From TrEMBL:
PANTHER family: NITRATE/NITRITE SENSOR PROTEIN NARX-RELATED, NITRATE_NITRITE SENSOR PROTEIN NARQ. The keyword Membrane applies. It holds the Pfam family HATPase_c. This is histidine kinase. It comes from Saccharothrix hoggarensis.
Amino acid sequence: MTSVVQRLRPALPDFREAPAAFLRTHAERLGDVTRWRVGREVLAVLVLLGLDVFPGWLAGDWELSGWVLAAVGAGYVALYLSRLLFPALALLAGTWVVFSAEHGGIALVIMLSYAAGYRIAPWQRALITAVVALALHMLAWDVSSPGLSGPFGFWVMLTVYGMVVALPFLVGRYAAQRNALVAALQEREERVVRERRMVSRQVRLRERNRIAQDMHDSLGHRLSLISVHAGALALDGDLGDRQREAVQVLRTAALTAMEELRGVIGVLRRDEEPEEDQARRTTVGGPDNRTVDAIDELVDGARRAGVRVSLVRGGQAVPLPAKVSHAAYRIAQEGLTNANKHAPGASVQVTVKYEPDALVVEVRNNPPRAKLPKGAGFGLVGLGERVRLAGGMLHVGELPTGGFRIAAVLPYEDTAAAGDEPSDDEPLDGEPAGPAKPTGIRKWAGVGSILLAGIVVIVVVGGYTWLGTQPVTKVVSDELYDSVSVGQAESEVLARLPGGAEPPLGDIRSDSAPEPSGARCEYRVADRQTYSSRATRIVRFCFADGKLVEKNTHLQGM
């Protein structure tokens, strides 16, 4: 029992820090004011005045002068704006002011109820505010509606409270809970994304270092051996000029490959992500020589290696993005490599043509002299990915004459497809791809408020439905009223008056004239009613000394 009491007890603020915290919080809110919020407040004030103040004045229900009416309107506006600082007190004051007056209006109470439900964060404080508002509403109801008594009057009072105070209060609380949930989820998702990027970055850097170490230990060692053996072979005096030139080409190719390998390893071992320009350097700090302009050197190197290759250039040169220029160089390099590997001795033609809207790079070779087995094709797969990331299209296939052709169309602008680098947003292995499913409190946040609001609506509708189905027999028709005359015996009149259930109108004796002295009166509802009169027609029969001494009708205000 003690734990339940502790949970129901609202968290009391530190009164020494409360004023400073209050001022600091509302100063921050004042700094976040936008034109939209100011316009919303102005519109709400106009709606409040239009629904609660001016209708009663125009209808003549309020006998107020212009200055008094202006004071009433200013008071309503001040009470509405006070919800920004003191939502609970504004709701309690508005409940008493509106329901204790004869023509208070309910738009103000609806707005204050929604604001209180939205702004009061602790549920204990919200519950206390709602209970106190109900108590004030009951006191004000007795003051402003004395005619509605009994079960029906109590039910009407609860209905007004439920629809005007409780329902907007619960809707506002639900909106606040959902907004807080959305903000918490957004903050959590941002934190998860940051953590995921950090982990992904660490994993990728670790993998890059491992790849760099493997390349250095295996490929670097073998290229060094090729360079050393080629250098030693070049010193052999038995070699002819042609053989010596071939050995020199082999040694130059090995040295160039080692330089490129060192550049790639340097990029992989950097702690930061490689930029486009960094990734295109062959040596640390050296210039980029793998561009479309370097295709000439590539073709010259192939010629020195004994490949029968020709280069055809066409069109006016256009400045190219680094990614596009590098892709063009790789296309020519891969085409020459494949031709030398799969069609040795065949003639090769490299074409670089600047079209009006794109760069075309093509490498084609004649049929090989001998049929050689096909390779795995990993080079063409990587080449296709490189062209796609540059925003171009690649075509690879055999020619009708038996040769082979590699052609690509590359854009002049940097229109690279998305995904050229592994995204930090991509989930790691074993990590769920989407946001976590809501569980526990997050899944049920705000459901309690909506559930209570639904119960309020169901109870109100069900209660009025039940009242509407109850039979009403204490009704006097015009024929019965006209047939009864003053002076008839009490027993005779009472025998003709209908008995049974009364209409659920509360105290039907209200708004009637004083009863005759010493008389006992019976009240009934008239059968014929005119709704334009905005009142209920009540019939009264008064008896004294065993006779009917008075019969009349009066209107009970609605």
